Amino acid sequence: MRKGYLHIIISAVAGAFLWAMPVYAASNIRVDHVALSIALESPARPGSTVWVAIRQVIEPGWHTYWLNPGDSGLATSVSWDLPKGVTAGMPQWPTPERFTTGPIVNYGYTGEATLLVPLTIARDAAIGSAQAKLFLLECAQMCIPEQATLDLNLHEASPAVFAAARAALPRRFDGTARVAVDKKTVKLTLTDPALSGVKADAVHFYPSTTRAVDYDVLPKVSIRGNTLTWDAARPLHGKPFRIFAGVMDIHGVGAFNVSALPMLDGATAAVTVATGFPVHGDGMTLLEAALMAFLGGLILNLMPCVLPILSMKALALAQSSGSSQAMRRDGVFYFAGVLVTFTAIGGALLLLKAGGAALGWGFQLQSPQVVFVLALLMTAIGLNLLGVFEVPLSLAGVGNDLTRAEGGQGAFFTGALAVLVASPCTAPFMGTALGFALTQPASSAIVVFVTLGIGFALPFSALAFTPALIRLVPKPGPWMIRFKEFLAFPMFATAIWLLWVLSQQVGSTGVAVAFSAGLGLVFLLWLLPLLRPWFRWATGLAGVAALVALGLQIRTVPAQSASGWAPWSAEAVADARQAGKPVLVDFSAAWCVTCLVNERVALDNAAVAARLRHDRVVTLKGDWTNRNSAITAELNQFGRSGVPLYLLYPPGAQGRVVVLPQLLTPAAVLGALTQIEAAR
Q1: CATH topology of domain 171-268
Q2: Is 15-167 CATH 2.30.40.10?
Q3: Which pLDDT tens digit goes with each residue over 369-408?
Q4: I need a surface site. Which of 49, 77, 187, 194 has the fewest CB within 10 A?
Q5: Which residues face 351 on adjacent strands?
Q6: Cβ-contact 69, 104 below 8 angstroms
Q7: Mind listing the pLDDT tens digit for each residue in 542-592?
Q8: What letter would DSSP give residue 439?
Q9: Most distant CA pair in the chain: distance in Å?
Q10: Cα(307)–Cα(504) distance, integer angstroms
Q11: Torsion angle defined by CA atoms of residues 610, 616, 617 and 619, in that order, rounded to the nearest 10 degrees
Q12: Which CATH architecture group holds 566-679?
């Protein structure tokens, strides 16, 4: 009993601990690849306004993000801890740069960037010290979230950096700005004498209004006299906006802040999108991400990778049959097990990414040791269900008093195990929500992970509180013994699947080690009941130590490409497109059952295979079975944190990539091929 509760307490404490992120504090700080500093232009005095410079010096090859980061990324954010009577205004952003990676367009900074922030000092303010809390994302081939606290003494001034910082800010546009919007385009028209003689290729516009234009489609620029027209395409799922704004940077003239109310059919329209929630990334709000995570969690119950674990839920329901109180208790404990485990996995992922690891959702099954342990656990559960051995507090103990704590604890660990096996899958809506979460501060990310867990746990827990269901479940009786034994076989099937995953990671030698460990586990479970209690503990500990030692010998081996599919690389995609060939990329993993089902159903379909050959499509496979930072970075570029991801590139460098559905069908693949063929 105490051992079981200790496991629950440890899990809860670990989940709470993983909320934390590294935080640094000083007036000059270096966080991995960015040096941060803060300075005051003049000493603060009551009744005045002073300016603060927050400077980023960025290591070569790395970048941070602007107010609108573009297709992905995260804008640098500042929150303040100020004395009473001191208030901070909106940051002034320097003119950004444009970065492109395939179809992904981002806006941000390289080298150096300084944000200027005004502080208003009330006449009765208590002037002392202040703190600016920064959250930023630094990126190269991988992205690292950073959080730091800069200390600011309001009495000490360092004005040296301000001249260069102000020179980098866009100026106010003194001419006339108009914006016309329809379903397909946004047309910005600027009129000013300074625009006379400007060349179209000298014009660059950076929209600060998010999701108003398609960043990847190059705009059309035309200049007649002193009037400049910038005509951009609307995104497929663009949002209405209340005001259109951005920075117009014209080589030889300068950069200007411009904004205008959109015009619809010649009349000014103000379509509000205010939600009361913070907007991050490409314009998705935390509320939207949480809703998508909830829907993804619901759908995750139906994904192929979760089906083997449904037997554990069925057994938990059967154990509680005849007792509405026990069913409700199990529903609550199952719900808690799911939430704690989702939070722990999400928190671990955030900590590892904060430490520089290039990981994504389902990262735990990229470790052969984790796969090895889960395979042994599934084998042990199956043997337990068959009655080979009995362990107190087991997940499947039949005949226990249903009102004892063991049942609730069993439901808790059933939920935890269901998450461990299910988490490598990515359901519809879930991928987008997780991609958003992994670019946010820890508090926002954990909200998404918890909401995902609520969606995953809700169906089973809701059934436990449904009186009509309780009446339909047969009363306990001899049938439960056979039902319990029957449910051992899905556990063995899951173990076989995990061993197959292990074979993809470690080859035949690693699988031989795993089978040897499995044999040792079965022998140990058979032997322990025959020993005296005092000798049983020593033998059990020695056996577990031997299994751990065997597991540590397992090592990954290079992945083998599927027949007809070459290994993915960004260079291979570029070379094929340069040669005038379309490219289909399959990002998957051996432990992703959804990926395997998609391959069998859609990619191995005879009609699809024939069409791929006919269209001379280059097929590339990004195998994420073992850790691969390049694949992780590519998934992040498309807002995904896990597999599957299917990309269809048209030939040439200009066409836009088609992202195929996560649940793949032959019709979806053939339709995408037709789409890029029609666009050629």
Answers
A1: Immunoglobulin-like (2.60.40)
A2: no
A3: 667 777 777 777 777 777 776 543 333 333 333 323 345 6
A4: 49
A5: none
A6: no
A7: 777 776 676 666 654 444 444 568 888 888 888 888 888 899 999 987 667
A8: T
A9: 98
A10: 21
A11: 80
A12: 3-Layer(aba) Sandwich (3.40)
